[in-house]
């Protein structure tokens, strides 16, 4: 058996990196719960026909089948590629026992059979929040979700030193209404071209739109709309100046203005209206969100989502929803690969209990138990080596303290300073900052 | 689209059940970290040839393949069926950057294509601890692991009211040495029959052993050994009384006696030596553990494991390990299905901020933000309904408090008692017991 090699696209972390990931996940969970989101988890698999409904993405699904399934058995299950489709199914399945509007967060792995490359993974962790209601969902939730997400990301910026973010928001109804006002019917076809704006530039997009049958004026107006981006509600006047009128356009403008204005009051500088944002997934019907790390825009969106008015429907009742997803792996993996995030130590242990000889191991265990009962993470040395070797065991793991002897003759050494003092296992406390591993980011 | 139905063997929880599961997982994590175990996660998939090595289980593996893989593409990946095999692979892959002995915990889902039935799932959560070392692993870790596991399970007993547990421990070297002393060479064949003792009784097992070529005396001795179970080290004398001698038997007896004696001092009454315990998986080579819930023995083992001396080897170096796994789903699902575990509420929210009218929603958000900044989970009411309706919104979710008005004219009502008092958003605190959802078990 030779040394196994990593599987491309399936990132795995060192214990130190995992401490950082847990730090991030704990803070996301705390922020979500402070906003009243309840946790759920869904199974890893969904029926293939439910996954395949999301047209664009079916080619990237992983099929799951028993190794010894009958030769002619048809594959029926696939690994979920996001948390929105499983959540919509969960809502339908459990509607009778949920209270609406239902607010949930969900932190799980998802899988996509994509070609792996930097920022693209085959297995990755997402942290989603969604609110769904029965029949209709109030517009203010489209405002609420980016506030929660931005607060979560802001905390990673201030506490961990991750780069600040900028969320770009648009509304599909705004674009749809605008296009309708221009006399364009195939909204999706236009959006597909406009989505290429950043890659190929406005002239090329106009060319493509004209090829598609738009007049020069229509194509110019579409690109003009996509070009608008403001940090306040002034985008409304800029759109009006393009001279298009339509009732759906009015609704879209009002909805987007409410998002931008509220965000401007509560999280200034972190959210802009950007009328070229489209989002790929078919199920979005209104507000759409994308978020980039400032200074690392080329890594792509680290938090995306939108409103989906008809994803969850059982034929009788529809459950409209709005959701935002934080790409935890996408956020962390590039920072890990550049060594920009570090933890103070790769283990939870604060103190190592030295062992004098194997006969007294039980006394060392008893000391350890007393410390653990007061919340101090403690290991007993694995071998009754010379003290110097036991200290090196701690040092290699960056465990800050080593404990010698049994009460009433116990002493603790801070192996960073060399200071050693007599202590009592019922009372000794490490420095507060040493109690848990701390993490540090690039800032 | 009709209402979707659950997939048999893939349990999903309600938000209230998920709160209970998170409570359990948080406490397991805390106990593991207090003992110096570092967290890792491994990817969900392993190469099929690595999974298939564990003879018995390969028929239950789920294969994973891209939906649009080439027709003749050979499946190469499968979902992991436990956390030990992936961990052994992780150790080999990362040995150059790990410190040995390496202590890790791992809480993840695993998948098995088994026929679903009560207590058997196709997707379930395990919480594992393992210690591996380079070349040799000290015997005291076989003693340490059950102490940590029993402490974790004891905490669920005292804090949550789960039933107490009894861990049964054996050592394969003890049985091997005993059989060798009897002149039996095919240990595995004997173990397979002895494993049926509880199901078919001693007479039938003796019959099967004789059919396999053992003498009547040999068969009697094997069943005699399997019949021994003691809560202290007295099993050693009982084995000696069977009159078999062998150096490996001596080693096995000493190792098992050390486990039982130390457990007897630190967690009295929770661990016994039971010489019929075999464990199915081929990779165990020494101590083996099984754990049942007292009074619910028929649910099977909720925590199992053992020592594996040669699972992780790259041809040059071997990394022996010892591990124990807690079956979190197996522990919780039967209690959920009987309604024996409840949470005080199905949401994290402590207080609902009532909204007077949509124009003042922003003031309500500002109050909520002040409370959240002090760690109080707060929701803003989704609709500016009459107060009675907003109180019903809270009541249906068992949210204990509703907040009315904006400072300086704020009041909080405890909707359980009806008591309503003027409060300040910078200072109000809920009752301590209300801050987080609490959980309650059957006891």
UniProtKB/TrEMBL annotation, chains A, B:
Its EC number(s): 6.1.1.21
Cellular compartments per GO CC: cytoplasm
Enzyme class, spelled out: ligase
Domain of life (superkingdom): Bacteria
Catalytic activity annotation: tRNA(His) + L-histidine + ATP = L-histidyl-tRNA(His) + AMP + diphosphate + H(+)
Annotated L-histidine binding sites: 82-84, 112, 126, 130, 279, 283-284
All copies of domain Aminoacyl-transfer RNA synthetases class-II family profile, residue ranges: 20-346
The keyword Protein biosynthesis is assigned to this record: yes
Keywords of the record: Aminoacyl-tRNA synthetase, ATP-binding, Cytoplasm, Ligase, Nucleotide-binding, Protein biosynthesis
InterPro entries, A to Z: aa-tRNA-synth_II, aa-tRNA-synth_II/BPL/LPL, Anticodon-bd, Anticodon-bd_dom_sf, His-tRNA-ligase, HisRS-like_core, HisRS/HisZ
Location of region: Disordered: 423-443
GO MF annotation terms: ATP binding; histidine-tRNA ligase activity
Gene Ontology terms: biological process: histidyl-tRNA aminoacylation
Keyword Ribonucleoprotein: no
Subunit structure, interactors included: Homodimer.
Family stated for the protein in its record: Belongs to the class-II aminoacyl-tRNA synthetase family.
Protein name, per record: Histidine--tRNA ligase
Organism annotation: Microlunatus phosphovorus (strain ATCC 700054 / DSM 10555 / JCM 9379 / NBRC 101784 / NCIMB 13414 / VKM Ac-1990 / NM-1)
């Amino acid at each position: 058996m030779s040394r196994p090699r990593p599987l491309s696209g399936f990132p795995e972390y060192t214990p130190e990196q995992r401490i950082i990931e847990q730090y991030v996940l704990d803070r996301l969970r705390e922020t979500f719960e402070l906003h009243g989101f309840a946790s759920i988890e869904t199974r890893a698999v969904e029926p293939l026909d439910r996954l395949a409904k999301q047209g664009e993405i079916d080619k990237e699904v992983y099929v799951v089948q028993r190794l010894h399934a009958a030769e002619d058995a048809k594959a029926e299950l696939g690994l979920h590629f996001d948390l929105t489709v499983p959540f919509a199914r969960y809502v339908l399945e459990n509607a009778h026992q949920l209270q609406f509007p239902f607010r949930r967060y969900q932190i799980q792995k998802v899988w996509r059979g994509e070609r792996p490359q930097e920022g693209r993974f085959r297995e990755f962790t997402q942290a989603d929040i969604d609110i769904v209601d029965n029949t209709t969902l109030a517009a203010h939730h489209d405002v609420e979700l980016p506030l929660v997400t931005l607060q979560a990301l802001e905390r990673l910026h201030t506490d961990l030193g991750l780069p600040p973010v900028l969320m770009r928001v648009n509304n599909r109804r705004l674009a749809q209404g605008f296009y309708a006002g221009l006399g364009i019917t195939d909204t999706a076809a236009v959006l597909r071209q406009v989505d290429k704006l950043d890659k190929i530039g406005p002239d090329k997009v106009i060319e493509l739109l004209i090829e598609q049958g738009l007049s020069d004026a229509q194509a110019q107006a579409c690109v003009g709309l996509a070009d608008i981006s403001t940090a306040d509600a002034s985008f409304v006047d800029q759109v009006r100046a393009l001279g298009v009128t339509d009732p759906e356009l009015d609704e879209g403008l009002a909805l987007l203005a409410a998002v931008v204005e509220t965000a401007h009051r509560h999280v200034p500088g972190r959210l802009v209206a950007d009328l070229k944002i489209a989002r790929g997934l078919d199920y979005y019907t209104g507000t759409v969100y994308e978020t980039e790390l400032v200074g690392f825009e080329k890594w792509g969106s680290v938090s995306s989502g939108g409103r989906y008015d008809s994803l969850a429907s059982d034929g009788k009742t529809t459950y409209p929803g709005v959701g935002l997803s934080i790409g935890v792996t996408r956020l962390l993996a590039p920072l890990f690969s550049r060594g920009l995030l570090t933890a103070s130590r790769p283990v939870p242990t604060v103190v190592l209990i030295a062992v004098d000889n194997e006969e007294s191991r039980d006394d060392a265990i008893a000391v350890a138990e007393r410390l653990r009962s007061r919340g101090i993470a403690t290991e007993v040395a694995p071998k009754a080596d010379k003290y110097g070797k036991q200290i090196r065991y701690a040092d290699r793991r960056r465990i800050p303290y080593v404990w010698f002897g049994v009460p009433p003759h116990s002493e603790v050494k801070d192996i960073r300073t060399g200071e050693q003092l007599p202590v009592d296992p019922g009372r000794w406390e490490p420095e507060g900052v040493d109690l848990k591993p701390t993490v540090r980011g690039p800032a």
